[in-house]
Amino acid sequence: MTQKVILVVLLSVSLCCLAQHLKCVSEAKYFIPNFMGNWFKATEYCNYLGMRLAVISTSEEQTNLTTMIAATDKFSNDTTNIWIGGSDLAEEVNFYWLSTGKRVGYSNWRKNQPDNDQNTDHCMEIRYNPVQGWNWHWNDQDCKAIRYFVCENLHIGKKVVLF
Ligand SMILES: [Ca+2]
Ligand SMILES: [Ca+2]
User: Fold this and answer.
1) What pLDDT, in 10s, does the model give residues 69-99?
2) For residue 134, which of 10, 80, 99, 109 sits 20 to 30 Å off, Cα-Cα?
3) Superfamily classification of domain 30-154
């Protein structure tokens, strides 16, 4: 019985639980919280976890991140839109990663994106919608849209922080 309890606790921690008095940091590189928010809330919440809204610097990271998303319950075969950490909020047309201050180098924009649609598309999302030709391409989107989001762990292996 005791062993079972310990196992459950360990599993909970390794799955990055967020209990009332326990702040857990994922041991995995990426983590998608269980609620949706606008791009600013996404940024805030990742920071709260000691993580950052995901930065994608290479095609390998793009593949790793999208593979991870597809394996979660946040993934839908029809359409999946997830915030990542770049924007052109500071300088229109010039996209930067907020958490690093670095200009976007590697990119996976869909054709004709970013389009600054309605003059309100300033935040980066990653989109899967095969019927409409989106295969994990990037899109600039209204930052106030409500999305799931991917936090990136900069402290892999750090387990639990009590507060
Ligand atoms: Ca824009
Ligand atoms: Ca757009």
Assistant:
1) 999 999 999 999 999 999 999 999 999 999 9
2) 99
3) Mannose-Binding Protein A, subunit A (3.10.100.10)
Q: How many helices and strands in the chain, by DSSP H and E?
A: 3, 11
Find the 148 Cα to ligand 1 centroid distance in Å.
Answer: 20
Distance from Cα 64 to the centre of ligand 2, integer Å: 23
CA 138 / ligand 1 centre spacing (Å)? 13
From the CA of 120, which ligand is nearest?
1
Ligand 1 centroid, distance to 121 Cα (angstroms): 5
Total-model pTM: 0.82
The ranges assigned to domains in the chain are 30-154
User: Exposed (0-12), middle (13-18) or buried (19+): which is 50, by Cβ within 10 Å?
Assistant: middle
